[in-house]
Structures are given as structure tokens and as C-alpha cells.
Amino acid sequence: MKLQITVLPGDGIGPEVTSHAVAVLKATAEVCGYDFSFQTHAIGGAALEQHGTPLPQRALAACLDSDAVLLGAVGSPKFDDVVGEKRPEAGLLALRQALGGYANLRPVRAYDAVLDCSPLREDMIRGTDILFVRELLGGLYFGQPRALEEDGRSAHNTMRYSVDEVERVAHIAFREAHRRKNHVTSIDKANVLETSQLWRRTVTQVGRLYRDVKLDHVYVDSFAMQLMLTPSRYDVVLTENLFGDILSDEAAVISGSLGMLGSATIGGKVGLYEPVHGSAPDIAGRGLANPLGAIETAAMLLQYSAGLPEEAARVSASVSRVLQRGLVTKDMAGRRLRSISSTETIGQAGVQSVSDLLQMNMAYHAV
Ligand code: IPM
Ligand code: MN
Do 287 and 320 touch, CB atoms closer than 8 A? Predict the structure, then answer.
């Protein structure tokens, strides 16, 4: 098994959390005898400073030439005044578009060991295991026309979806539901938006091809509330781009911190793997960042680009194990008394746990 991975650490806490995801992948390669190679490039604000553009040609070429892309985060208050294509975020959106992945998978779990780290009641979140399937290449993020008028007095964006765009991401959601609990909840605002009416109609049609999967449609405002009240009722949640961006941050409250969530973007030429959290410039370089979202992201890379579900499951399990040992970063302080560990300590515990679990697995296969 050979895999070429392009690493884009990016800005803020991106580099410090990504290093632990890379360490996890290296440990996996070592224990299982795989050949993973890594090439690192700047993206976002870091690239803007070094090369004058948030997505340098060489970085993009390296990504297109690899088997998977592992990204940290982009964005920095340093570039708040930068507009248009030079914005760090514009570099990320251009990368997403070039790689072509349209389905962004964001799992959200309530981990038993840290239920008290959520402000939500433990009995309400226990057992929650949701997979958000967020459409990533359409809607307001990419719709044309878009502009801030020259006089600065008005601005517009366009929300646009085609049947093809909805169908392809819906198929991914139903397929994922097949591997889970056979339940898809599709989110829209069909009482107001035409794009949502098209979305609902198209998802319903695709759903007819998956007879064993239960399909519900819920308005986004209502869902935002239900997600806090009865999160364990959901399995796969299918959303358009902006709704998915907002709801996945909200859902992070169930896991205890945004720092816990990883993501995979699939369906394109090359898979793109990024934690859900941003660059968190306020805590960058202080050993406070939570590396577990990045480690979960590494697990998703193993699952979707390497085709190694067993190894992926071990990496995910290592996240639970670290938490079971009472090890947390500051964002997961919780109501129970725990000592707070640094990014480095948690990351190393994660890597150690991955090695241990994979070695046990290998020994099991050897007998
Ligand atoms: C995310 C981020 C990005 C998005 C930003 C940084 C462009 O918030 O991945 O959720 O809005 O998609
Ligand atoms: Mn977001």
C-alpha cells in the first residue's frame, strides 16, 4: 500500500494540530508496513505572506498529483482587510473547487468519557452519532453573480443549485446511511427558498432508489433547535453548503468542543481532509489547541483515500481511548475535575494509542 499525501498546515493552530495527524499516519504506516510519503506546502495566510497568493500554483499542482490532501486551517486577523481572491479563505475555496470533492463528511459523536464537557445535559446527548453530509461546491459559496458594489452601499450573493449537484451529494448521504443506521434527515428551507424546493424534490427522488433508508425532511431553523434537544435521534444529516457550515459548528457542542471534529471531502479527483475547526489565531502556538479533531481527520483519510477501514477504526478508537484516560486539552475542561494537558501531550498519547491498537490488531491477525 503506497500513498502520497500533500500536507497543507496553513495558519494559526493548523501546523500544530496537523503535525499530530501526520504522526498518526506515520505510525500507521510503520506498524502495518505501508509506504506513506508526505510533501508539505503553504496555503492561506502563510502562502499569501511567502508567495503573494493564498493558493500557490506549486501547492495546487502537488495536491492534484497526490492521493490525498491533509489540511490544517486557514485564516488570520492579519488579513482581515484583504478582499476577494487574495483572502486566505478564498485559497481554500479555490482548492476545494480544483480537487472537485462535493461531499463533505463531518461526523459528530458524544464520547461517553467526556459527556460532562458539553453544556448540554448528559442524558440528552448520550449515544449521539451523527454524520453530516454537507454539499461543498455549490450554494452561496460559489453561486454567480456575487459582488460587493463599488460604492460599498450594497452587496449580493447567489444561491443556486442544479438537480445534478443535489443528486450526487444525496447519493453519498444514502450510501453512508446504508453503512450506518439507514436514516437520512435532509435539511432545507423549502417554505421560503426555491433552491430548497428543488433540493427537497430531488432528494426525495434519489431516496426512492434506497427503499431501506428512512428519509425525513426538516426545516433548517427547526433542525437547529432539534439538534440541541434530541441529537441522538439523527443518523445521516444531509445539507446544502451554508446550512452545513453553520449546523456542524453548532453540533460540535455535543462533542464538547469544535476541536474534536474531523472531516473528509470526497467525490472529487483527490480526497481533502480537514478538521472542522478554524485557525483559532488567539490560541495559536500556546500548546492549547486540541489535536483530536486532526487525528480523527487522519482516520477519515485512511478510510476514504487509503481504503483501510480497519486502520481507520483503530485511529478513531484511539481518540476515545485518550479521552477515557482523562486526558483533555483546555477546550474540554468539563464539569468533572480533570487536569489539563497540552496539545503535545494529547497528540503523543493519541499516536501511542494508535500504535498500541494497531499492534494488537496485527497480533490478532497473525494467529
Ligand atoms: C469550514 C470553514 C470554511 C467554510 C471557511 C474557512 C472558508 O468555516 O470548513 O467550515 O466556511 O467552509
Ligand atoms: Mn465552518
Answer: no
